[in-house]
Amino acid sequence: MSDGSVLDHHSPYETPLHRDESAIAGMWLFLASEALLFGGLFLVCLVYSQTRAGGWAEGVRHTNLTIGAVNTLILITSSAVYTLAVEAGRRGDNRGVVRAGLGAAGLGLAFLVLKGVEWGQEFSENLFPGPHFALHGPASGAAALFYSFYFLATFLHGMHMVVGIGLILWICRKARQGAFSPAWSTPVDVVGLYWSFVDLIWMLLFPLLYLIGRA
Amino acid sequence: MSESYLWQDGTLRSWLLTRDHKRIALLYLGSITAFFALGGVGAALIRLQLLEPTGTILSDATYNRMFTMHGVVMVWLFLVPSIPVTLGNFLVPLMLGARDLAFPRLNLLSWYLFVASGLLVLYGLFRGGLETGWTFYTPLSSDYSEGRVLPVVLGIFLNGFSSIATGVNFIVSIHQLRAPGMTWYRLPLMLWALYATSVIFVLATPVLGITLLLLAFERLFRVGVFDPTLGGDPLLFQQMFWFYSHPAVYIMILPGMGVVSEIVSTFCRKPVFGYRFVAWSSVSIAAIGFIVWGHHMFVAGESLYSAIVFSMFSFFVSVPSAIKVFNWLGTMHGGSIRLDAPMLYAMGFIGLFTVGGLTGLFLASLAADVHLTQTYFVVAHFHYIMVGGMVSAYFGGLHYWWPKITGRMYPEIWGRLAAALIFFGFNLTFFPQFILGFEGMPRRYATYPAQFQILNVLSSAGAGILAVAYVMPLVYFGWSLFRGARAPDNPWGATGLEWRTASPPPTENFAETPVVTTDAYDYGDLDARAGRADAGGPHHV
């Protein structure tokens, strides 16, 4: 078990603080990159929601607002719970990190389970675009387009959730081994940045896929 | 001083698990050289086919797959990574006075991602290839193509993460790991160029990622995304593709500009003229490069008003490029110029890049573009930038830093000969294509009207010379590894921290962290200390 409060032999850094600042900066840059990955997706969604407004709105109306809203609450709560892990890490309270981390990961898992239920319903209602697509009429093409984006966007977000939950469990394992101390808890912070980002993406996906055009 | 990074631990395992930026640079060098050769084979077959108006060796369908292979391999598996991942990986920490990049393990991961992406692309290419061109335009790529679109597109998607990892690593390193006294305005211009490149890596690559993911999703599940018969908008694909791929053009030239700044200064024994202008022109090329993508779509149904704006921005981006060219010339003016091989490549770069840049203005002009777009004029234009410019700079940089990387001198005579041959072969290959395009020969066709044959034969002859010229460095670099003269620490008498350590450097780069007390390219000071009254330039060993 390496102790992060000292530098290992080959480190390019002068001090642990120097290294930790760089780790935070690296994660922010990665998130900037991620923002543009999802940004491209949001852009296409926005364009189609305007140019193909009728059918797009038809698709939005068929999403499950209840599950979407509950999931939104779950994910915000999960992010909030994770901030407790960050605080515990800074105090060097490894048990606190494990408790809050497991809470946040559990809520993340609940989100994925609900999302899976929602997907299951949608597949059984033939809302996945294809020859048997459920919505008919003149707007059916654009509604199918909406569901292409719905499934891809939620899949992509779901993959980020899976990665995030994995990272949080890794943090919990490190904490159980007593890795964090007031001098060093940077990984808890770095994973926190990522987890908040995954949350933030959902905050944009939720209105885009469930709300805009519903009324 | 401890042992060199090359021999400290010679096991294969120590290479494959290395975190040393210098070794990772060499792993990358091996990989991209292989891909350069593969892309070159594609180019050779294309030029063979076009010797005769009706084609010689390839069927029409195979021809389409061949130019696609050439484009995909050369753009993503050679040009985009080229200078950043080899020379950049090797030099960024050395130029900063650091022990390594900010994230050594991420650096190794980026190489593995690159290899995985390369294998995926190769799988697609060898299981039949694809005929979409390197641009993957929909609906051809999503709906009609009978080729292996999926593995290639997913390979390029993966490739993007390798680029992003390198970009993040360089940006954080340049912010965090500068040696004491190394202020931003003392950075070598290579680092300003790589910094600007990294910003594009981080901010443009993910947009290509999502675009290709959407394309793969559409093709895999036959659902509507861009396909007009399924309600999609195929032009949206072009918008998103070029939002990445135009900035990517600057990924494929900015690092070369960085290399040329280093070489010109060293071989004229003068500071780069207008240092701050050259530095900020890299940043402004990267910034303006993000808002010119629409000039690829002038005839694709873009509104006239958008087209006018994109045309205007395209003219703007030529300003910082021209600043660089004038400042390199200003650096050479009154310098004591030595025409060693790296300088020959750098001068080749300046001339060929200028031709490529000026012909770009023709294409940025709306009315002229209607005539020239989709012709060989475009092919010639971007090869002048990417091959005449970037590949020349890459070879120039390899020669310049070869003594540092390997500890051996390459044979200078052969180096100069190869540089001259590349310049000659390149012009013979691509200058006729300007004329062909202007006279109306379209690109991407396996056959052409008989009146174009003479120029096509000239072009193919040039490609033959170019092929020989590109093999030459491979041979004499290989030779120099075993028989080349031992390189001194600073064979060119250059400034820059990388020359203040051993050739090849020890694993930890510097025996102790260097302290920087002067601006970059302070040749007056260096020559005075070396007691050279005549500023006599590098000594050969």
TrEMBL record, chain B:
UniProt keywords, alphabetically: Electron transport, Heme, Iron, Membrane, Metal-binding, Respiratory chain, Transmembrane, Transmembrane helix, Transport
Transmembrane portions of the chain: 25-46, 73-96, 108-129, 149-172, 192-217, 241-265, 277-298, 304-323, 344-368, 380-401, 413-434, 454-477
Main localization of the protein described in the UniProt heading: membrane
Annotated PROSITE patterns: COX1 (PS50855), COX1_CUB (PS00077)
Domain Cytochrome oxidase subunit I profile stretches: 1-517
Protein name: Cytochrome c oxidase subunit I
Subcellular location per the Swiss-Prot or TrEMBL entry: Membrane
Keyword flag Cell wall biogenesis/degradation: no
InterPro entries according to UniProt: Cyt_c_oxase-like_su1_dom, Cyt_c_oxase-like_su1_sf, Cyt_C_Oxase_1, Cyt_c_Oxase_su1_BS
GO biological process terms on file: aerobic respiration; electron transport coupled proton transport; respiratory electron transport chain
Listed GO MF terms: cytochrome-c oxidase activity; heme binding
GO annotation, cellular component aspect: membrane
Family per similarity comment: Belongs to the heme-copper respiratory oxidase family.
Bilayer topology term: Multi-pass membrane protein
Pfam families reported in the protein's UniProt record: COX1 (PF00115)
Upper classification of the organism: Bacteria, Pseudomonadati, Pseudomonadota, Alphaproteobacteria, Acetobacterales
Keyword Transport attributed: yes
